[in-house]
Design brief:
The complex is a heterodimer of chains A (439) and B (305). Chain A has a six-stranded mixed sheet with strand order 2-1-3-14-6-15. Chain A has a four-stranded mixed sheet with strand order 8-11-7-12. In chain A, 46% of the residues lie in helices and 14% in strands. Chain A is of the alpha/beta class and 439 residues long. With 305 residues, chain B is mainly α. Chain B has two domains: 13-57, no CATH class; 65-303, MetI-like fold, CATH 1.10.3720.10. Chain B is built from 15 helices and no strands. Chain B has helices spanning 2-8, 11-38, 44-48, 59-66, 68-99, 107-119, 122-132, 139-146, 158-186, 190-198, 203-214, 216-231, 235-240, 252-262, 266-303. Classes of the chains: A alpha/beta (439), B mainly alpha (305). Chain A binds chain B through residues 1, 3-5, 7-12, 14-15, 72-73, 76-77, 79-80, 97, 100-102, 193, 244, 246-247, 249-250, 378, 382, 392, 414, 418, 421-422, 433, 435-436, 438, and chain B through 26-27, 29-31, 33-34, 37, 41, 43-45, 47-52, 54, 63, 135-136, 153, 155-157, 225, 228-229, 232, 234, 244-246, 253, 256, 260-264, 266, 270, 273, 276-277, 280.
Chain lengths: 439, 305
């Protein structure tokens, strides 16, 4: 049938763009900057363009909106087909991957230009996510991390005036809340298959996740095991329901109804909680930085968000860079925050009253000073998927903690086989094989 | 001498030449290329620099057999094939029987309505069905609620997601087979029914003793086509569930797509494609043998009265 035909043909479909790579591109008028932005950002960033175009007469920015669900595939396909935009948004965890295939232009020389001190203004953890082998390949556009959202009233009723600062207090407050709400409700919502909470706990315990220069999985290490045991314990003690994201009917209704009191989530829920929770919920919830394993916190959280990058094949790289600079200006960042609710990546933008007066955003401000990136390797997204798979299996009781960690190490080692081979070859290049430059 | 020279050049070759050339260029060549691809570890790194490509022999295939997700995808695909195939054929046949008799009014209207889902874009259909399946606002749960059942989270529950996909796929595709069954039913000579009714056969007996045996070739065609199509389940889970929840709707083709175009492990995806290809060929050959037996059987049954 035709569908079979389509399947066997796609290797050909792959070769055609490869073969045509040399001759494609180059038909658009001069001084047009092609800019790809994802999802909601792509929708509203258009509103910021008239100011830029007024400042640069003769320049037109063509914004192409790409849905997040297809963004990764589309960017890779565009790269293969030599149809990359001049400027594009990309998830900050994708930077190593796109760097590995040579789809990102190095930005260091541009940053040394007129405003050299500007980089200090960015949150360190998020800037670090864009740094590969000492070079900068993306400019943080907005930041994303996870903090603790919690019901202040339930916590107070359970006898806790302040949010927990360390794991022991967190466990105690969860147990107290659970005792208060009884069965059928839970202390915490921890959707299974979300890798971020577990990775945050692991980074907090000092786990490196990978070892030997990110060549092997390091999930059977004492540090990761501690974090995994803490994570599993929350489910084993019935403090969190075994539910995946998709099974939760309505997060906001459930939170308002007291179905759970703690939830680890990101900045987008600042706006969503404010808009979707019933009016009487105002003042009954708040945010707090992540608790630390010991001591008085805050604990580390995971660095995420999106960056702006330049394609090495940009037709007019100088104008393209001006667009990146414009979008990075504190004033533009504040406008962007007002349009989207995305948190600015630059500290100076946080002086604006829109953010400075938002009490719920304070936790993010604190948390953003304590960020760590997951391992910066092209395979990270796949590794994260494996972590989610085995955490899921262990939570559901299909695997014991030990078996899950052993299997995770085995799978991740297999995933990293190519990386090990490449690193070994780079260390000792064969005498005959030259290193042909990519297209 | 010259006569044998003419005989040696058969004009048939000139006539089939263009078609063969096209098939070679657009089918055999890509298949061969895909097979070669499946012997390499073509991935993101090779995309960046062809020097990063390695010839790894059958290692992709070995890795595939050890991959638990492959077995999950295979199990899901077989689940779909085994349940959706017969169900779809039964529904198609029932619909064809309903809209074929000359006495039925508004035949054209019903035929069009039943065929409409086939020509509708699957993405649009999937969006509508997602609303129907919605756990709180869905029509299906509303209807079940009236008889005090549910609510069910059709696409969120690992146990229910595949049945939900099957129901949608059957609804979407039965119209095509219905048309083929209609053609089959119309080609059954009226005299067979007359002879059967003279012999005292009722409607039920006429269906089992005349219609079903006479439709054996149609059954074979519809069965093989449905089987091949069902093995390639992709768009329904891709649009509705992305393979979730808990991989319960991950099909082989969807897994292949994810490996190939999400992660760009094209070597691995090509190996997966070949395993699926082998599987479809094997099952189709098996059906052919069974089909021949059934047809021989049908002739004897048809000949007895």
């Amino acid at each position: 049938m035709t569908r079979l035909g389509a399947l066997v043909h796609y290797p050909l479909a792959l070769w055609i763009p490869l073969a045509l790579a040399g001759c494609a591109g180059g038909a658009a008028p001069p001084h047009e900057v092609r800019f790809w932005a994802m999802g909601r950002e792509g929708e509203v960033v258009q509103q910021l363009m008239p100011t830029f175009e007024a400042r640069h007469p003769g320049v037109r920015v063509r914004v192409q909106q790409v849905p997040w669900s297809a963004a990764h595939e589309k960017l890779l396909t565009a790269f293969v087909g030599n149809a990359m935009p001049d400027v594009f948004q990309l998830g900050s965890t994708w930077v190593p991957e796109f760097h590995a295939i040579g789809a990102l232009a190095p930005l260091d020389t541009r940053l040394d230009g007129p405003t050299p001190a500007q980089l200090d203004d960015y949150f360190g953890g998020i800037l670090d996510a864009n740094r590969i082998a000492g070079g900068i390949y993306g400019i943080p556009w907005y930041v994303d991390t996870r903090v603790l959202f919690y019901r202040t009233d339930l916590l107070a009723q359970a006898g806790f005036a302040a949010p927990p600062a360390d794991w022991a207090a967190w466990t105690a407050s969860m147990a107290a809340v659970q005792h208060l709400v009884g069965s059928g409700r839970y202390a915490m919502l921890l959707p299974v298959r979300e890798w971020q909470p577990l990775v945050i706990l692991a980074l907090q315990s000092g786990a490196t996740l990978l070892r030997d220069g990110d060549r092997y999985g390091d999930f059977q290490s004492a540090a990761f095991r501690t974090a995994f045991a803490f994570y599993l314990d929350i489910f084993r003690r019935g403090l969190a329901p075994v539910e995946a994201e998709g099974q939760i009917a309505n997060l906001y209704q459930d939170f308002a109804a007291g179905f759970f009191a703690f939830y680890i989530s990101g900045p987008w829920n600042l706006g969503e909680f404010a808009a979707r929770l019933p009016a009487d919920m105002a003042g009954r919830w708040s945010t707090a930085p992540m608790p630390a394993p010991t001591g008085d916190g805050p604990g580390i959280s995971v660095a995420g968000g999106a960056s702006l990058a330049l394609s090495p094949g940009a037709r007019d790289p100088d104008t393209a860079w001006q667009l990146v600079e414009y979008l990075s200006e504190p004033a533009t960042q504040v406008s962007f925050y007002r349009l989207t609710g995305d948190l600015p990546a630059r500290r100076s933008a946080w002086d604006d009253p829109a953010l400075a007066d938002n009490s719920h955003a304070r936790a993010f401000w604190t948390q953003l000073q304590h960020l760590q990136s997951p391992p910066k390797i092209p395979e990270w997204e796949r590794v994260a998927g494996k972590i989610a798979d085995y955490a899921d299996a262990a939570v559901r009781g299909d695997l014991t903690l030990d078996a899950a960690l052993a299997a995770l190490d085995r799978d991740v080692d297999a995933l990293l086989e190519k990386r090990r081979w490449l690193l070994a070859r780079r260390a000792a290049p064969p005498p005959d094989a030259g290193h042909p430059a990519g297209s | 001498m010259s006569g044998s020279g003419v005989a040696r050049f058969n004009p048939a070759y000139a006539l089939v030449g263009p078609a063969l050339g096209l098939i070679a260029a657009f089918f055999f060549l890509p298949v061969a290329a895909a097979f070669l691809l499946s012997l390499t570890d073509f991935d993101l790194y090779a995309l960046a620099d062809p020097a990063n490509l390695r010839l790894i022999g059958a290692r992709n295939y070995v890795a595939l057999l050890r991959d638990p997700l492959f077995w999950v995808a295979l199990r899901n695909t077989l689940y779909f094939v085994v349940v959706a195939g017969p169900l779809s054929i039964a529904v198609s046949l029932a619909a064809a029987l309903l809209v074929t008799p000359a006495a039925v009014r508004l035949k054209g209207l019903f035929r069009t309505l039943f065929f409409l889902p086939v020509v509708t874009s699957l993405v649009a259909v999937a969006v509508v069905w997602r609303y129907l399946y919605h756990p709180r606002f869905g029509l299906l749960n509303y209807a079940l609620g009236l008889i005090r059942l549910g609510p069910f989270d059709w696409l969120g529950d690992p146990q229910l997601a595949m049945p939900a996909i099957i129901a949608m796929a059957v609804w979407k595709n039965f119209g095509f087979n219905m048309v083929i069954f209609m053609a089959g039913i119309q080609s059954i000579p009226e005299r067979l029914y007359e002879a059967a009714s003279i012999d005292g056969a009722g409607a039920w007996q006429q269906f089992w003793r005349v219609t079903v045996p006479m439709l054996a070739p149609t059954f074979f065609f519809v069965g093989v086509m449905t089987l091949i199509g069902n093995f390639q389940l992709f768009a329904e889970p891709y649009v509705m569930t992305q393979g979730g929840p808990a991989h319960s709707t991950l099909s082989l083709v969807l897994y292949m797509y994810e490996e190939g175009f999400r992660w760009w492990s094209l070597g691995y995806a090509a190996a997966l494609a070949f395993v699926l290809f082998g599987l479809i060929v094997a099952v189709t050959l098996l059906t052919r043998v069974r089909g021949r037996q059934a047809r021989d059987g049908a002739v004897t049954v048809g000949a007895t009265p």
